[in-house]
Write a structure and sequence with these properties.
heterodimer, A: mainly beta, 11 strands, B: mainly beta, five-stranded antiparallel β-sheet
């Protein structure tokens, strides 16, 4: 089955540790995205990539880093510089660089920093 | 700016109709999406409007007026499983900007 996988579903880390969230897609989509969602809020864009080996900052990139070495993979690292990292993280992909017609989402990773 | 505004919560009875409004500043967006999100899950795509008018898909319909910066999602024949958050999102180039979501509560 084609889709987007994120692992793990729940992740706990101690304050001050870097952590990497996995996102893999087998939809052959060009574009991939990372969002953060806090309780009662919409999705905020962290980083996005429209092609392999290229990515751009979204609205809240500070404290995060990404790489796009392969078309199917777009891992997100939450660094110790991120002041409030506890959140629900969603990865998405779309078929083309225009972001459309729609973005498909993975199941999400809920990160809790203790 | 491209702020997207939608009501925080709406309550309706099973079998009824609910209309969720979404307003945005008109500059920059070239398409309007609606997603459904159940608690703790990923958003799922419902509809996409790029031209003015009504798009109907089963029990769900979406309307767009680009000149007014206005869209709505219409949910008909409400079912209990429709209790969820509904996200409005505007597209600008390769990115989506999301509203905060409208929590719809369906009561028996």
């Amino acid at each position: 089955d084609g889709g987007i996988t994120q692992s793990p579903k729940y992740l706990f880390r101690k304050e001050g540790q870097n952590v990497t969230l996995s996102c893999e897609q087998n939809l052959n989509h060009d574009a991939m995205y990372w969002y953060r969602q806090d309780p009662g809020q919409g999705l905020r864009l962290i980083y996005y990539s429209q092609i392999v080996n290229d990515f751009q900052k979204g609205d809240i990139a500070e404290g995060y880093s990404v790489s796009r070495e392969k078309k199917e993979s777009f891992p997100l690292t939450v660094t110790s510089a991120q002041k409030n990292p506890t959140a629900f993280y969603l990865c998405a992909s779309s078929i083309d660089r225009g972001g459309g017609p729609e973005q498909f989402f993975g199941p999400g990773t809920r990160l809790t920093v203790l | 700016g491209q702020n997207i505004d939608q009501p925080t919560e709406m309550t309706a009875t099973e079998g009824a109709i609910v209309q969720i409004n979404c307003t945005y500043q008109t500059s920059g967006f070239n398409g309007l999406f609606w997603y459904q999100q159940h608690a703790g899950e990923a958003p799922t795509f419902l509809s996409y409007n790029v031209l003015d008018g009504l798009e109907e898909k089963g029990r769900f319909s979406s309307f767009l007026s680009r000149s007014k910066g206005y869209s709505y999602l219409l949910l008909k024949e409400l079912q209990m499983k429709d209790s969820a958050s509904y996200l409005c999102a505007g597209r600008r180039g390769g990115k989506l900007q999301f509203g905060a979501g409208t929590q719809v509560v369906v009561t028996p």
